[in-house]
Amino acid sequence: MTNTVATHEAFEHPALFYRDEQEYVDRTVSFVQEGLDLGEPVAVAVPGPNLELIRDGLGADAQAVHLLDMTVAGRNPGRIIPAVLRAFADAHEPGRVRIIGEPVWAGRSAVEYPACAQHEALINAAFEGRAATILCPYDETGLDEEVLADARSTHPTVLAGGTERISDAYDWRAVVARYNEALVPAPDAAVFSFGVDELYAVRAFAVEEAGRLGLTGRRLDDAELAVAELTTNSVVHGAGRGTLAVWAAGEQVVCEVRDAGRLSDPLAGRRPPARGQIGGRGLMLVHYVADLVRLHTGDEGTTVRFYLGR
Amino acid sequence: MDASHGAGGFGPAHGAAVLEVGPLSGRPGIRARGEISEVTRPPWEAALAGLAREHADVSYVELSEVGFVDVAGVAALAVTALGLPRGRMVVEHPPPQVPRVLGLFWPGLGRIEVAP
């Protein structure tokens, strides 16, 4: 299917466009079995129902595969590179790994989708030069044409109808840029401006507001930690101060930190630091605990918005 | 440095980030009081460096009077534990950020024991 042997050193990132359940099972199961035959560690991170299809298709071989429900492990798309893909690949270095990752499914909301597209694009940067094959299935009948067009831009090759072709539209940087969408301030948010002397106070404000809006227990603790990391980043990297906004949106509480800094590294928060390094986990923490992270950066500053379910 | 001489007038109740760190009495290790964040990181890391220098078998880090530890503060704990040549570090009564961040970024780190 993928020409694994001939390009053994390269990173491969094909999109798989599938039209029905049978095609999905045929392609994904043969991809996994090819990896097992080559002795490669294999992980599958796809939405629950699809995970069951692959598990059933693999039979006893499923025991040799690391299986994850992507709606849990990858609910926040920004978490997938460090916590799912790099975690698996790094644990098996220097050997080649094989992963099925399905981060986009029918039902992803319009608020989530830009983060999904950027995630798919950034896989190419995160795995450049790594010995890995990451196959990303796309439901050709259930997803919008715009989503499929983006998949052609975020994957160097596309596998459809049993044939793998180089994608002429491949341009992951353009997708990162296109979905770097401005985040419009919420009119009904509670707002707190902070500098270095207000780091404690802004954190206390976030806890009070998020609690008032219905976060409790670990979710409230996570909001406190995430706000602490973002506000600290603003003070250290974002011209010394920033603004926190907190509001409710449907079943979620949203916290947003704006500052005048510019985030120049597109992989910030997605590149796991060495185990023995103290810094470099602030934005990654936000990605790990939140249900969704949206980010906008430009000459006018940076906005990071995270969502936590109530 | 000795937290036992801390006279109050600091800590989250007063709306500022303050940290006092000192040695434990009667056993190896340190105790801290206040919060561990960007502003208070230098004394925290210095205390952990001292703990590592004097470490023999088991060192204790008593955090019952710490209200908050940020990710880099937990990272400093984990990195200190990783660098111990032998034995382990026991973190006593930490605020919830400590087990949460250890679980996310250093799962199964045997050199740290968290005693709730």
Short synopsis of the structure:
The complex is a heterodimer of chains A (310) and B (116). Chain A has 310 residues and is α/β, with parallel strands linked by helices.
What can you tell me about this protein's structure?
The complex is a heterodimer of chains A (310) and B (116). Chain A is elongated, with a radius of gyration of 20 Å. With 310 residues, chain A is of the alpha/beta class. Chain A has helices at 21-37, 48-58, 70-73, 80-91, 113-126, 145-154, 172-178, 199-212, 217-237, 282-289, and strands spanning 14-18, 42-46, 65-69, 97-101, 132-139, 157-160, 163-166, 190-195, 241-249, 252-259, 292-298, 301-309. Mean pLDDT of chain A is 95; it is low at 1-7. Chain B contains 3 helices and 5 strands; from the N terminus they run E-E-H-E-H-E-H-E. Chain B has a 5-stranded mixed β-sheet with strand order 1-2-3-4-5. The longest helix of chain B has 14 residues, at 41-54. Chain B is globular, with a radius of gyration of 13 Å. Classes of the chains: A alpha/beta (310), B alpha/beta (116). Chain A binds chain B through residues 196-197, 199-201, 203-204, 218, 221-222, 224-225, 228-229, 232, 235-236, 275-279, 281-282, 285, 288-289, and chain B through 12, 15-17, 35, 37-39, 45, 68, 70-72, 75-76, 79, 82-83, 96-97, 100-101, 104-106.
Ordered list of secondary-structure elements with their pairings:
The complex is a heterodimer of chains A (310) and B (116).
Chain A: E1 14-18, H1 21-37, E2 42-46, H2 48-58, E3 65-69, H3 70-73, H4 80-91, E4 97-101, H5 113-126, E5 132-139, H6 145-154, E6 157-160, E7 163-166, H7 172-178, E8 190-195, H8 199-212, H9 217-237, E9 241-249, E10 252-259, H10 282-289, E11 292-298, E12 301-309
Parallel strand pairs in A: 1-5, 1-6, 2-3, 2-4, 4-5
Antiparallel strand pairs in A: 6-7, 8-9, 9-10, 10-12, 11-12
Helix pairs in contact in A: 1-2, 5-6, 5-7, 8-9, 9-10
Chain B: E1 19-23, E2 29-36, H1 41-54, E3 58-69, H2 71-83, E4 88-92, H3 97-105, E5 112-115
